[in-house]
Automatic annotation (TrEMBL):
Gene3D superfamilies: Phosphatidylinositol 3-kinase Catalytic Subunit, Chain A, domain 1. The lineage of its organism: Eukaryota, Viridiplantae, Streptophyta, Embryophyta, Tracheophyta. InterPro entries: MUB, Ubiquitin-like_dom, Ubiquitin-like_domsf, UBL3-like, UBL3-like_ubiquitin_dom. Keywords: Cell membrane, Lipoprotein, Membrane, Methylation, Palmitate, Prenylation. It is a lipid-anchor. Residues 7-75 form the Ubiquitin-like domain. Coiled coil: none annotated. Pfam families: Rad60-SLD_2. It is found in: Cell membrane. This is Membrane-anchored ubiquitin-fold protein. May serve as docking site to facilitate the association of other proteins to the plasma membrane.
Length: 118
C-alpha cells in the first residue's frame, strides 16, 4: 500500500488524554476507527463506552458517519500533509439504557405545610 494512502489518527478523549496515534488506510471505515477506540479505551476512566454505538467521532466540527471511509472524510480533515489528525471522541450512552438505569419515583407525594396563623 502506498505511503500516501495511509493516515495517522489520534483520538482525543473527554479529559484531554489521547489514544494513539494509529496508522489507517484510506479505505478504513469510521466504524473501524470506533471499534479501535472502544477496544483500546484506557482503564480507570470514569466514562467508558460499552459499545461502538455509544461512540461518536468528531473532526473539524463534524460528526463522522459510520459507513464513510477515512479517504472520504479527508476533505474535512484539511491538508494533513504528514501530520497526525486528531479526532475528538464523545461517549453518548444509548437512550434506552439511561432510561432504565434511572429510577424515577412517580408515586404521589403529600405536601405537608406547617403554617401558623397569627
Amino acid at each position: 500500500m502506498p505511503e500516501e494512502d495511509l493516515v495517522d489518527i489520534k483520538f482525543r478523549l473527554y479529559d484531554g488524554s489521547d489514544i494513539g496515534p494509529f496508522r489507517y488506510s484510506a479505505t478504513s471505515t469510521v466504524d473501524t476507527l470506533k471499534q479501535r477506540v472502544v477496544s483500546d479505551w484506557p482503564k480507570g476512566k470514569t466514562i467508558v463506552p460499552k459499545a461502538v454505538s455509544e461512540v461518536k467521532l468528531i473532526s473539524s466540527g463534524k460528526i463522522l458517519e459510520n459507513d464513510k471511509t477515512v479517504g472520504q472524510c479527508k476533505v474535512p480533515f484539511g491538508d494533513a500533509s504528514g501530520g497526525v489528525i486528531i479526532m475528538h471522541v464523545v461517549v453518548q450512552p444509548s437512550l434506552a439504557k439511561t432510561k432504565t438505569e434511572k429510577k424515577v419515583d412517580d408515586s404521589p407525594r403529600k405536601i405537608v405545610c406547617s403554617c401558623s396563623i397569627l
